[in-house]
Amino acid sequence: MKQSMLAMFNRTGAWVLLFFLVLPALISIPVSLTPKRFLSMPKGELSLRHFEKLFTSPEWLSSFAQSAIIASSTALLATILGTLCAIGLWRVSSKYSELVRAFLLLPLIIPQIISAMAFYRLWIPLGLLDSYPGLIIAHTILAGPMVLITVSASLANFDPKLEQASKNLGASNWATMRRVILPSIRPGVFAGALFAFILSWDEIVVTLFISKFNVYTLPRRMWNGIRENTDPTVAAAAVVLIAITVIAFGVSTVLSRRRAQTQND
Amino acid sequence: MQDKQFMRETLVEGAEAFKAGRMNRRSFLTLCAMAGVASSAVMVGDAEAAANEIVMWNWGGQSEECHGNAIGKPFEEATGMPLRFDTSGPLQGKIREMVDSGNVTADVCDGDLFDAIALGPSGHLEAIDYDVVDKAKTLPNYAVEHGVSIILYGYAFVYDTEAYGDTPPNSWADFFDTAKFPGKRSLYKWANGSLEAALMADGVSKDELYPLDMDRALAKLVAMKDDSLYWGSGSEAHSMVVNGEVSMGMVWQNRGRNIEIDTDGRYKLVMNEALAMPGAYIVPKGNPAGREAIMKFIATAQDPAAQLQLLECLGMTPSNPEAFAMIPEDQQPYAITSAMNIDKVAFNDPVWWGENGGDAVNAFLEAIS
Amino acid sequence: MIDSLRKHVSPGWMLVAPFFMLVVVLYLGPILNILWLSLTDPEPGLQNYQKLYTNDTLLRIIWTTFRICLITTIISVAFGYSIAYAMVHAHQKRQKLMLTLLLVSFWISILVRTFSWLMLLGHNGLLNNALETLNIISEPVAFVRNELGVLIGMVHYMVPYAVLPLLVNMQTLDTRVMSASRNLGATGSQTFFRIYLPLTKPGIVAACLLVFILSLGFYVTPAILGGGKVLMVAEYISVQLLVTLKWGTAAMLAALMLFGVLALLYIMSKFMKLSTVFGGSTS
C-alpha cells in the first residue's frame, strides 16, 4: 500500500517520540555508574559499586524476587478477572452494563492514599496485613480496571457476528470464547497484563500501608531512606531491567529469523 | 485459637509457680521464650500482649543502622530484647489509623515532639513514665506528657561560596534578601522551619517567635515566591543543592556536613539562627512490647554515649545536657547544642506546632502554590 | 428456576461476577466508610463541602489539577496515536523494535524517571549545558521546577498508557476498508480522516479515559518536577490524611474527584453510545 506523505511524516515523528520516551532510561545508564553515593552524573570517574551492591546484597535481591512474584501473580489474577469481566460486559451490552463498567473503574479513580487506608482497615481483621496474598489481592483490585479498559478497547472492533457464527456452528460458549474471541483480543489481553504487572511492580503508596516487615518489595527498597538520599542503586536496578528487555528483544529477533529460515527451507 | 488459650493458661500457671518458688528462674524464662513473650509482661499478667522485641517505626536509610548500633545493641545486651525496624515512615495520620484499628505493631516512633502534642490528648499515645525516663536528661521544655526529646535536628541553610565568597550570608535576613544576594532559594515545603525563618528574616527575635505571626511570615514568603523552590524530602533538598539549582538552600542541619562533603566544599553550612527541632520518641497506645519494656528502652536512649554515637552516625545533636560538653571538636560547628552554637539557635515550641501545625501547613501550601 | 434465571439474566453477567464481587466485598465497604467522613468529620454536616465555596485555595488546586490533566491527556493521546499508527504500519521487525523501546521506558520506576529529568533539564543539566556551550542561550532555561516540568514528566509517563489501548484497537481494525476507500479514489488523508480516525474512536476514548484518570491520581512526579509549587489534588488529599489530620477535607476532595469522573462519563455517554465505544455489540 502506497504510503502517503502524512504517514511518512508521522513515522519520523513517531521515532522522535520514542527517543523522547527512552531518554530517561538512557540517562540512568551513566547515572548508575556514578562513584558518588547519591544520584548524579559521573564526572570523570566511573564506578561499578552500585551494581555490586545490587547483586551481592541479599536485601536487594530479595526485594527483586518479592516484587517479581507479587507482580506476576497480580498480572495473572487481574488479567483473568478483568478479561472475563470485559467479555461479560460486552456480551450483556445494555444500560446496566455501562453502569457496572463505570462502577468497576472505582479503584482506579479513588486516590491511592485512600485506597491504601481502606485496604489497611479491612486487611487487619482479615489477617491479610503484611502478607503476599494481601498485597496481591490489593494490587489486583487496583489493576483490574486497567485490564478492563484495554480488553474493552480490543473488543470494540470484534465483530459479534463472529461469535454468533461460532455458536450457530455448534460450539459451546466456552469453546467460542477460547477459540474465537480470545485469539482476536489477544493484544488487548497482553496490554492489560502488562499494565497490571507494571502497576504492581511500581506500586508504593498502598504497599507502604499494608506491608510492615515480611513484605519488602522493590519500590519499598527504593524509597527506603528517601528522606536522606536517593540511593543510586535504583539506577543500577533500572539498567538491569533495561538490559533484560533489550536481551529479550535480541533473542526474540534471532529466534524469529531462524524460524523464517527453517520455513524457507 | 485453642493454642493461644492453652499457651496463655500455661504461662499464667508458670508465672504463679515461679512466684511461689515451685519453678526455677531458668525454666520460667525458657517457658516464656518458647511462647515468644517477654517474661516481664507475663509477670504483670499480660501474657497475651507483650512481645519479646522492640519495634521502632522510622524512615529507614542510615537511621536503621545508627539507632541499631547506638541504642539497640546496648538495650539488647541489658535485657535480651532485640531492636527491629519498620521503615514505612511514622506520619501522624498513619499512627492515628494504626491505634484506631487496634492492631498496634510499633513500640516507638522516631518522630517530632509536636506529634506528641497533636496525638497525645486524643488518647493515641502512651504517657511517658518519668520514673524510668529522666526529665533532667533532656532540655527543660522538651519532656512532655506523651513524648520526650532524644535528639535535636534543625533547619539551617547552606550557601554557594562561589556566588557569595567575599560577603557570605550569615542570617535568615540575608537568606531572604534576593536583592543583595541574587539567586534561587529552597525552603521546606511542610511549613516547619520555613515560617520561623521568614519571621526571623523579618526582624522577629529568635526567642520571641511563638506564637507564630502567620500573616507576617506568609507575606515574607510570598514576596520571595518567584525565586523559591520547595522540597518535601531530604533527597530533594540534597539534589537541589548538589545540582546547583539554588544559591542558598534550606536544609536539615544534620545533613549539612554531608552536603559540604558532597559538593566538595562549595556549599557551606550556616548555623546562625538555625531552628532547633526536638526529635522525639513517642509510644503508640497499646504497644506490643508493653509499657515497662519501652520505657526502659527510651531511658537507654538518653544515655550520653548513645546520643554521641547518633551524632557521629547521623548528625543528630544530643538533647541530654550531660552530653553537650562531650561533643567532639570536628562536629561542633555542625551540632546544635555545641558551645559555639547553642546560643545562636532558635528553639522550636512543640506545643504551638502540635496544636496549630495542621493549619499552618495548609496555610503555607495555600501561599506557595 | 435456573432456566428462567438464565432467560432473564444474560449469561454475560456470570463472567462479570468474579471481579465485581471482589470489588464489592473487599473494597467498596471501607471506601464508603472513608468517603462518609466527608459528611461527619470533624462534625456532621456539609461544612467540608462548603469549603469549596469559601476556600479559594481548594478551587485553585482543583483547577490546576484539571488543567494539567486535560493538557496531559490531549498531548499524550496525540503522541500515542502517532506512535501506535506508525507501529501498526511498520514491518514486523521494526514493530518489535518500537515495542521494545516502549517497554524500556515503561520499566523505569518513577524515582529514576523523575531524577533523570532533573539531571537532563535542570539548571545545570545536560540540555542547558549543551545549549549554553553551543551559545544558543546565555542563561539556563527553566524547563523543570515549574508547570512545564510537570507536564513533561506527566506526558512522558502517560504516553505508553495511551499507545497500548490505541494499538490494540488499531490491530483489530479491518484494513480492507482502507484499501476499499483508496480504490474508490479517496486520497490518503481523506481516507485517514474520514474512515480510519472514526474507526479508531473506541481506542481514542479508552486511551483518553485511562490517561485522564491516571493523571488525576498522579502526584509524586508533579511534586518533585514542579519544585513544590504545582500542587495537585491527589497530593493535597494525601497531606490532609497523613500530616494535617483533616480527614473530612480529604474525603470530601476524593468524593469530588469521583463525582467529577462519573459526570465526565455521563457527558460522554450523551455524545456517543458508550457501550459501542467500550466494545459492546452493535445492537
Q: What would you say this structure looks like, in words?
A:
By secondary structure, chain A is mainly alpha-helical. Chain A has one domain: MetI-like (MetI-like fold). In chain A, 78% of the residues lie in helices and 0% in strands. Chain A has helices at 5-32, 49-56, 58-92, 95-104, 106-109, 112-126, 132-155, 160-168, 173-184, 186-202, 205-210, 218-223, 233-264. In chain A, α3 crosses α7 (132-155) and α3 packs antiparallel against α10. The mean pLDDT of chain A is 90. Chain B is 43% helix and 17% strand. Chain B has helices spanning 2-20, 25-35, 39-44, 62-79, 92-101, 113-119, 161-164, 172-175, 194-201, 214-223, 234-242, 256-262, 291-301, 304-314, 321-324, 350-368, and strands at residues 54-57, 83-86, 108-112, 143-144, 147-160, 185-188, 228-231, 248-252, 267-282, 317-318, 346-347. In chain B, strands 1, 2, 3, 4, 5, 6, 7, 8, 9, 10 and 11 form an eleven-stranded mixed β-sheet that branches. In chain B, β1 (54-57), α4 and β2 form a beta-alpha-beta unit. In chain B, α1 packs antiparallel against α2 (25-35) and α10 packs parallel to α16 (350-368). The N and C termini of chain B lie far apart (54 Å). With 283 residues, chain C is an all-alpha fold. Chain C has two domains: 1-40, no CATH class; 55-277, MetI-like fold (Orthogonal Bundle). Chain C is 77% helix and 0% strand. Chain C is flat. The mean pLDDT of chain C is 88. Classes of the chains: A mainly alpha (265), B alpha/beta (369), C mainly alpha (283). At the A-C interface, α1, α3, α4, α5 and α6 of A face α2, α4, α5, α6 and α8 of C.
